[in-house]
Design brief:
Radius of gyration: 16 Å
Number of helices: 5
Order of helices and strands: HEHEHEHHEEEEEEE
Bound molecules: 2-oxoglutaric acid
Oligomer: single chain
Length: 198
Amino acid sequence: MKLQKPKSEIANTYQAKKLVRLPELIDPDTIDELLGFIREGSFEQISNSNTYPEQSHISWGQQRVADKEGRVGDDRIFHFFGQSAIKELVEVATDKEITTDHYCWINRYEAGKFIGPHRDAPGAATLLICLQTVEGPEYGGSLIVKDQEPPSRIFLQPGDGILFGADEYFHYTEPLEPSVANPEPERIIMAARYYAAT
Ligand SMILES: O=C(O)CCC(=O)C(=O)O
C-alpha cells in the first residue's frame, strides 16, 4: 500500500468532506494477485435485484466475499482490507477506532452495466479500490458521488482508491461502453465497509 499524500492531509480532507481520493494506493503486482484470486473464486452472490431493484444492472450481481464475521472461506480480499496499514489509514482518516469485522464485496461490470444511485448501509467509512477499468471516462465507468454540487465525477484507474461516506452520499456509476479496441469492457472494484468500535 502506498500513499501519495501525508496521512495528516488525508485525515483533514476526509474529516472535512467525508471523501478522499487515494491514487495509486496499490501496486500492479497486488492488483494482479487480487484479480487472480477474484477470477478463480466462487463467491456467494448477493441477490440485489430483490432488495434493491435499482441495483439490478450490476453484472454478476454483487459478490459477497466475507460475511460480517469474515467467515466465507479463505478470503484474500477480507484479509487485504484488514491488514494493519489499511486499517490504520481508515482510523487516521475517520478519527475512529475501527473494528475487525469489516464487510467486503466485489462488483464486476460488463458492457452496458452500472450501479444505480443508492446509499450503502451504515458504517464508519467505505474504502473502494478499482482493480480493472476501461481506457478512459469516455467509455463509462466513472463513479459519481453526490457529495457536493455539481457531484464529484471520479474515474478510478486500476490501483486507485477512494475512502468515502457511502452511507451518507448517494453514488452511482456510468454504464460501460464497448469500443472497437475493447468490445468486451470490464470494470472490477472491491470495497470494504468499516465499522467504528463502540
Ligand atoms: O463500482 C463503483 O464504483 C461503485 C460501487 C458501489 O457503489 C457499491 O457497490 O455500493
